[in-house]
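Ticket opened by: R.M.
Priority: normal
Category: complex prediction / small molecule

The reporter submitted a protein together with 5-O-phosphono-beta-D-ribofuranosylamine and asked that the result be attached to this ticket for the collaborator who will pick it up next week. Submitted input follows.
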Amino acid sequence: MRLAILISGTGSNMKSIVKHFPKEVKLILTNNPNSKGIQWAIDNNYNSSIINHKNYENRLDFDKAVHEKLKQNNIDLVILAGFMRILTPEFVSRWKRKILNIHPSYLPNFKGHNAIEMALESGIKQTGVTVHIVTPELDSGPIIKQERVDILENDDIISLSDRIHKVEHRLYPKAINSYMKSVEMGIIF
Ligand code: GRF
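Result attached by the on-call engineer:
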């Protein structure tokens, strides 16, 4: 299976995924030319692409450019890893059941941006990480894997984010593996 990873920022999940799937990752794409992750991908000779959303008049045109780039590279599975653009329903339906996302909470709790801050401020004792299939509704598609993460007494945003990231780096490759097996077996099609 040919994978594309879409990022906007640091790309720590991207690094973990390319480590686990060195042969399958065929494209690393960003909307953000200043993304640290894309610089790393370029420096490490990955097939990389910058499609700056600011150069497009609307979401549909931007998504079309991304779609074309994915098609040019014969991509089978799109992996969102800190990709900070909301994809249009048109794009999502063209890639139906072929887009995965990782979210830093135990969904359905704390959807949207700032999920880690929201969990911390809510006073609950546990949050988590979720990998799911992307559907048009934000952070709502079928869940592939989830893991709980404890919130400790003295946690601040940095310590909790660090602990969540460690879980993400382990959970995302596992979820991709499960997804690929399910496709092979015809469970996801
Ligand atoms: C992760 O916390 C992920 O859950 C969220 O965006 C963050 C990306 O971090 N969707 P990184 O760029 O992979 O370091």
